Amino acid sequence: MSQGKNIELSLVIPVLNEQDSLQGLYGEIVQALGERYSYEVIFVDDGSSDGSFKVLEGLHKNDPRVRVIRLRRNFGQTAALAAGFRHSRGRVILPLDADGQNDPADIPALVARLSEGFDIVSGWRRDRKDTLVTRKIPSRLANWLISRITGVHLHDFGCTLKAYRAESLREIRLYGEMHRFIPALASWGGERVTEMEVNHRPRRTGKTKYGLARTFKVILDLMTVKFLASFSTKPIYVFGGLGGICFLGSVLTGLVVLYSKFLSEPPLNINRNPLFVLSMMLMTAAIQFVMMGLLAEILVRTYHESQDRPTYAIETILETPDDAERA
């Protein structure tokens, strides 16, 4: 992530088959920001199969502030945002959706909240214009669960429209669907996070890319985030703890087996006692968990010393020669 000396805002917009909304969204951005800020608009074409890239080419030709990153295929929203973040040059980075449901008119207010001493301002779609069963209810459940597990209490982790100080994103690596967890990841690193209500509008063109299956993916990523936050540098604590539980269970069941053999009436032969098999299985599991923990420790050390490889592949970048030199 590089920073331009004179660029205040970098708008990062992932695009997937949104050809009908792009021109209108660009017009709203120009109207909302006007000459108040020096800014760039980075559209990341995430493998669109419609005419989105052609529209973006036209926007770039007519406005040098528009930069276009075209990925080789569809890598997903998180990867597209990561590509945009990495190539942004503004002191403040603002992602937003390409479908027009986020309102660019909210951008100045988000930026103003940063000046109050915050590092991240997260948008809250309080009056959300989506379907109740497939979007609103799963979102509320997911937001409640994320807040409880991460300890960062926001009403709307899934709102793309946020304002970040560029330095707040510098050390964050994104995988899976983890873009929604950026406020939590940053907060764990000491960044100051707040939220503010933003306008949410009905989708005017195209079809939604999200569904109930996305909620399940979010829950899986939440488990990963929690594990990375608590045990990324000490996995032996997790696997060793599980191994300890299995070892304790093995000892207790073994004692019951011995009691049944020597003290109960009538005595029960060990080879006929199912608890003996359970005791041996628990002891085997205890050994395996400890070994897995040791292997995880080795992998963690390898990971922290590995190369920084992105989760996307860029086909082409449309920008002015001056932009390329400054990046």
How does this model look, in words?
This protein has 327 residues and is an alpha/beta fold. It has 2 domains: 9-231, Alpha-Beta Complex (Spore Coat Polysaccharide Biosynthesis Protein SpsA, Chain A); 236-304. Helix content is 49%, strand content 13%. It has an 8-stranded mixed β-sheet, with helices on both faces.
Tell me the CATH superfamily of the largest domain. Answer: Spore Coat Polysaccharide Biosynthesis Protein SpsA, Chain A
Count up the domains: 2
Note the gap between the termini.
Answer: 8 Å
Number of helices: 11
Average of the residue pLDDT scores: 85
Major beta-sheet overview: 8 strands, mixed
Report the C-alpha radius of gyration, rounded: 26 Å
Order of helices and strands: EHEHEHEHEHEHHEHHHEH
Helix-residue proportion: 40-55%
Order of the strands making up the biggest sheet? 7-5-6-4-1-2-3-8
Keywords:
single chain; about 325 residues; alpha/beta; Spore Coat Polysaccharide Biosynthesis Protein SpsA, Chain A; eight-stranded mixed beta sheet; 11 helices; elongated
Summarize the structure.
The protein is α/β, with parallel strands linked by helices. It contains 11 helices and 8 strands. It has an 8-stranded mixed sheet, with helices on both faces.
